[in-house]
Amino acid sequence: MILPIVAYGDPVLKKKAKEIDKDYPKLNELIESMYETMYGAYGVGLAAPQIGLPIRLFLVDTEPFSEDDELSEKDREQMKNFRKTFINAQILEEEGDEWAFNEGCLSIPDVREDVFRQPKIKIQYQDENFDTHVEQYDGLIARVIQHEYDHIEGVLFTDKLSSFKKRLIKGRLTNISKGKIKIDYKMRFPAMSRKR
Fold it and tell me: Active site located where (predicted)?
């Protein structure tokens, strides 16, 4: 089932998410719906806060990046079959010299900005069966994971911008929170939620 994606300005996007256990109600259905929602919005990642749930769950599928001609052959190959669900994730280490990449977010449509992140991460998480993994990633996959991980920490990519950049996009962010934007996927806007 495709769920509405929560828009910029909703308080759930700024909350630090809570851990869950295997008894979380209808977890498999939720994960399935999140993948369907992400694909329906042409995203490469989606975190539970983006569908209004403050829980430590996000998923990533970097397949769309495998068709990007601007990436190296190695990067494209890496992206091809990377599809994972991360539950109760904790980034244990981030290292390397920060590098910029133009990021966007399904909760902040039509806003893209260069964000600096470290290239290598070590992350501990549980999969759908609640088996624990500790893995290392680098490059674009690490970046997608860092972006989604930020969501469960209550951080948006716009929080990482300079105050000058934030001032430049302030009007666009306000319009998004008020629903004054054209998008081709289901969204829930904070201004509309308050009117009910």
Answer: 148
d(CA 194, CA 115): 31
pLDDT for 134 equals: 98
Residue with tokens 């860092």: 146
Binding-site positions for Fe cation: 105, 147, 151
pLDDT band at 92 (very low <50, low <70, confident <90, very high): very high
CATH of domain 5-195: 3.90.45.10
Catalytic residues: 148
Q: What does the alpha-carbon distance between residue 186 and residue 40 come to, in Å, rounded to a whole number?
A: 9
pTM of the model: 0.93
Structural domain boundaries in the chain: 5-195
Instruction: Give yes or no for a contact between 132 and 126, defined as CB atoms under 8 angstroms apart.
Output: yes
Cβ count within 10 A of residue 148: 24
Q: Which residues carry a binding-site annotation?
A: 105, 147, 151
Give whole-number Cα distances, 85 to 31, 94, 155, in Å. 8, 20, 19
